[in-house]
């Protein structure tokens, strides 16, 4: 008998985790676009930490509600277009340069 869970059991646990309120981690086989979007979220996290501001203050800076900021900070961004994420980030870093390679 194997001491490791089956793939089916692991998938079931992963699905439950994604439905929880915590931070979603990026999949090792994520697309380039998903990696890019994940990195944008990381930039918000860094900005918040480096400036010592609250989630509410960040929401005010990017002109949205605190619930949306929470989703961004926890990488729960399915409802956001990439353009919208970039637009929010430009509000706190107007000099941002985006390079596609």
Query: What percent strand?
Result: under 5%
Note the overall shape. Answer: globular
Q: What is the residue-averaged pLDDT?
A: 87
Task: Provide the CATH topology.
Answer: 434 Repressor (Amino-terminal Domain)
Structural class: mainly alpha
Please tally the helical runs, counting DSSP H or I stretches of 4 or more residues.
5
Q: In angstroms, what is the radius of gyration?
A: 16 Å
Number of domains: 1
Number of strands: 0
Describe the largest sheet: none
Instruction: Give the N-terminus to C-terminus distance in angstroms.
Output: 48 Å
Give me the strand/helix succession: HHHHH
Provide the CATH architecture: Orthogonal Bundle
Any low-confidence stretches, pLDDT <50, length ≥5? none
What would CATH call the class?
Answer: Mainly Alpha
- Helix percentage range: 55-70%
Quickly describe the structure.
Helices cover 58% and strands 0% of the residues.
Explain what this protein looks like in three dimensions.
The chain is mainly α. The protein has one domain (31-101): 434 Repressor (Amino-terminal Domain) (Orthogonal Bundle), CATH 1.10.260. The chain has five helices and no strands. It has helices spanning 7-19, 32-51, 55-61, 66-73, 82-92. α2 runs parallel beside α5 and α3 (55-61) crosses α4. The longest helix has 20 residues, at 32-51. The termini are far apart. The relative contact order is 0.13. The mean pLDDT is 87.
List keywords for this structure.
101 residues; mainly alpha; 434 Repressor (Amino-terminal Domain); 5 helices; 58% helix; 0% strand
